[in-house]
Amino acid sequence: MHLVFSALLVVLLVSCGLAVERTRDLLGAVVIFASYSLLMAINWQMLGAPDVAITEAAVGAGVTTLLLIGAVSRTRRREE
Amino acid sequence: MHDLILSTIAGYLLPLITVYGAYVITHGHLSPGGGFAGGTIIAAGLILAALSWGFHHAEKVFNENSLGNLDTLGSSGYVLIGLVAVFRGSLFLTNLGAGFPSGTPGKLFSSGAVWLLGAAVGVKVAATVFGLVARIWSGGGASGEVDEP
């Protein structure tokens, strides 16, 4: 069960990483990147690193998303 | 942009998030987390409130001046706690050897000066992260709202 969940997490992580690169809508890419960070936080917790998981959830899914949304709002939303 | 639902929920969530961040900071030597994680959680709560109420409300309390003061308080507090050990005849940042009380192991007040060091790091990280996001969202004279595509 643990192995299946870990494999599912890895598959979702890789597909999120690919989707960030493929998405032309930059705001959508930021949201996918936030979900990537959240999956990575669950992964850190399952690997036995709750310290890193808390930091990843706070920084990766919280602050980085807000910084990137602020950057998108100051530039273009569509990638050329 | 003012939204009633957002601002009301942010008013309920801000104290909870701040208390949770303070919990993570103060229990940094006992449980996962610490100064950096807790400071980021507090900053995220402040950013949530500032985004829902508008950054001009936040600037009454957390403007560039006071954020710089909090920054300096955090980093200089860390160095001063480290220098206490030097003035007591030990190396920089010596903990129990320099006479800090050890407390009861496993309780909140244990491990000497690590608690104070974590609090200093937390103050600095919270001020820096909030200042960074506030600068991007409200600086430069723009409205600070996301443009419609």
Question: What is the compact description of this entry?
Answer:
Chain A has 80 residues and is mainly α. Chain A has three helices and no strands.
**Radius of gyration over C-alpha positions of chain B, nearest whole angstrom:** 18 Å
Distance between the termini of chain B: 17 Å
**Helix and strand pattern of chain B:** HHHHH
- Point out poorly predicted stretches of chain A: none
Major sheet of chain B: none
Helices of chain B, by number, come to 5
Mean of residue pLDDT values of chain B: 86
How many domains make up the coordinates of chain A?
1
Helix content of chain A: over 70%
Number of strands of chain B: 0
Q: Please tell me the overall pLDDT of chain A.
A: 91
Share in β-strands of chain A: under 5%
Class based on secondary structure composition and strand pairing of chain B: mainly alpha
Give the distance, in angstroms, between the N- and C-terminal Cα atoms of chain A.
Answer: 43 Å
> Into which percentage range does the β-strand content of chain B fall?
under 5%
Total number of helices of chain A: 3
By secondary-structure content and strand pairing, the structural class of chain A works out as: mainly alpha
Name the biggest interface.
Answer: A-B, 20 and 24 residues
Helix-strand pattern of chain A? HHH
Largest sheet of chain A: none
**Unreliable segments of 5+ consecutive residues of chain B:** 141-149
What do you see in this structure?
The complex is a heterodimer of chains A (80) and B (149). Chain A is mainly α. Chain A has one domain. Chain A is built from three helices and no strands. In chain A, α2 packs antiparallel against α3. Chain B is elongated. Chain B is mostly helical and 149 residues long. Chain B has one domain. Chain B has five helices and no strands. At the A-B interface, α3 of A face α2 and α5 of B.
Please tag this protein with its features:
heterodimer; A: 80 residues; mainly alpha; 84% helix; B: 149 residues
